[in-house]
């Protein structure tokens, strides 16, 4: 048995004798005690698959850098789990807005991504259900579309299981005269050196030409602060580059990295203590928006904030020792960049240029800033040990699972649905209620409309009132949609 029963587990029985040269044997792959790869006998009972498992060793060895380091999808879609990547890609392609050559290029990129992350791709000539693994911070996203599950598991657990499996298979073929076995074993023994060569490209998502441009500026290029003892550990600079790539110009990215590099590490004991309390109470189950609502309710309770009492994110962050500073990144949609790793921060850089680009009036800027800071509070409280261990870029390529949770948290923390429903039921008109909620809780009309829509009062509204809420939501963004 390789791997824990509650996670990824291989039940492996290798044969001895001549068939050992290619690691022939029997295997059942289970995930959380459910068989993913197995056969069955004539009576329908589960049996192990007989195969040459050198295939699996070769897959792990060739794809090790990507399995360990790659956190970004290859095209601009944001599925919650990698099992939905192709479906979301096809939805994007069916929009009719992309030229055929772009679709062909993206189709190949998706295929190559799955070839790196789907364990089923290892077994050439044997059909087994897909089991797709993708890193997300200190976790792995695990998808099995055939069995309908998408699960989060600890990063170290998955890596330890795959390492033990690779070591077992490599030991089995160490003396094999077969060329395939020799190559697979050699690739496995060289995996650490090959991983080192891929750390910066895979962790930043930057193309070589872009990396060369950053290399021209000494202040933006040193060693990305990578720990030589832990090349798979993220850094604030790597994470900021990865999540801003594709959303920002080279000049803005250089400015961003310089600012983060200059941010010193600071102590935040009150925040750390609160985060530890929360982690002991929190279970990462249910849909992300449900988790976000729960987290907001927990924090309001911990702060003794009544449902009808407004929250003040900036004051909280100041009390917790989190620095909030402005940064100007023109011509990009990034709202904020936050870092909270061992070398920099906790610090939140608010992109003032984002507000200037949208020509928002002062109250709207205030509402936007409050929402942004509430969003980052969620990450600071719960994601430093999970999906975002060192940094986050709001408006960039941050993991969608954590972003959905943080968006719901921000909305609920700033304007609890219970309070929205109470005002809706007591106000003379819906318009008056929206104005009252905005003024009391200092939030945008869009956020207010979404919280009313998601509240218990929505179904009691007339069709005309529901249509008005829809109009307000559409006039803004879909930021708070589940």
TrEMBL record:
<dbReference type="InterPro" id="IPR010359">
    <property type="entry name" value="IrrE_HExxH"/>
</dbReference>
<dbReference type="Pfam" id="PF06114">
    <property type="entry name" value="Peptidase_M78"/>
</dbReference>
<feature type="domain" description="IrrE N-terminal-like">
    <location>
        <begin position="366"/>
        <end position="448"/>
    </location>
</feature>
<protein>
    <recommendedName>
        <fullName>IrrE N-terminal-like domain-containing protein</fullName>
    </recommendedName>
</protein>
<dbReference type="InterPro" id="IPR052345">
    <property type="entry name" value="Rad_response_metalloprotease"/>
</dbReference>
């Amino acid at each position: 048995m390789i791997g824990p029963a509650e996670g990824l587990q291989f039940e492996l029985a290798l044969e001895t004798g001549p068939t050992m040269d290619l690691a022939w044997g029997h295997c059942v792959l289970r995930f959380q005690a459910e068989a993913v790869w197995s056969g069955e006998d004539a009576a329908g009972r589960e049996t192990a698959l007989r195969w040459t498992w050198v295939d699996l060793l070769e897959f792990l060895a060739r794809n090790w850098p990507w399995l360990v380091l790659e956190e970004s999808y290859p095209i601009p879609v944001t599925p919650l789990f990698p099992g939905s990547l192709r479906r979301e890609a096809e939805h994007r392609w069916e929009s009719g807005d992309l030229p055929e050559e772009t679709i062909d290029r993206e189709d190949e990129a998706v295929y190559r991504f799955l070839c790196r992350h789907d364990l089923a791709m290892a077994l050439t000539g044997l059909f087994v259900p897909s089991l797709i693994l993708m890193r997300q911070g200190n976790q792995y996203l695990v998808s099995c579309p055939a069995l309908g599950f998408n699960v989060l598991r600890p990063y170290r657990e998955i890596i330890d299981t795959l390492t033990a499996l690779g070591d077992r298979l490599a030991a089995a073929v160490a003396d094999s005269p077969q060329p395939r076995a020799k190559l697979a074993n050699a690739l496995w023994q060289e995996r650490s050196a090959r991983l080192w060569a891929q750390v910066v490209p895979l962790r930043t998502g930057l193309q070589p030409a872009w990396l060369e441009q950053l290399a021209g500026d000494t202040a933006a290029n040193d060693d990305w602060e990578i720990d030589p003892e832990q090349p798979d550990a993220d850094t604030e600079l790597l994470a900021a580059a990865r999540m801003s790539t594709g959303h920002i110009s080279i000049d803005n990215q250089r400015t961003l990295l310089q600012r983060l590099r200059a941010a010193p590490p600071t102590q935040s004991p009150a925040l750390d203590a609160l985060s530890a309390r929360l982690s002991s109470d929190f279970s990462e189950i249910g849909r992300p928006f449900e988790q976000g609502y729960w987290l907001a309710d927990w924090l309001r309770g911990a702060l003794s904030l009544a449902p009808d009492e407004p929250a003040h994110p900036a004051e909280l962050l100041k009390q917790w020792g989190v620095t909030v500073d402005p940064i100007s990144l023109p011509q990009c949609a990034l709202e904020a960049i936050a870092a909270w790793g061992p070398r920099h921060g906790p610090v939140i850089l608010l992109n003032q240029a984002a507000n200037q680009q949208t020509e928002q009036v002062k109250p709207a800027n205030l509402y936007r800033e409050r929402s942004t800071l509430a969003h980052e509070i969620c990450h600071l409280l719960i994601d430093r040990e999970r999906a975002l261990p060192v940094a986050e870029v709001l408006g960039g390529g941050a993991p969608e699972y954590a972003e959905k949770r943080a968006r719901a948290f921000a909305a609920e923390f700033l304007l609890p649905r219970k309070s929205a429903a109470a005002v809706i039921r007591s106000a003379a008109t819906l318009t008056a209620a929206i104005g009252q909620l905005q003024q009391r809780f200092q939030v945008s009309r869009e956020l207010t409309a979404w919280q009313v829509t998601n509240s218990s009062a929505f179904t009691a509204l007339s069709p005309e009132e529901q249509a008005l809420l829809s109009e307000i939501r559409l006039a803004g963004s879909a930021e708070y949609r589940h």
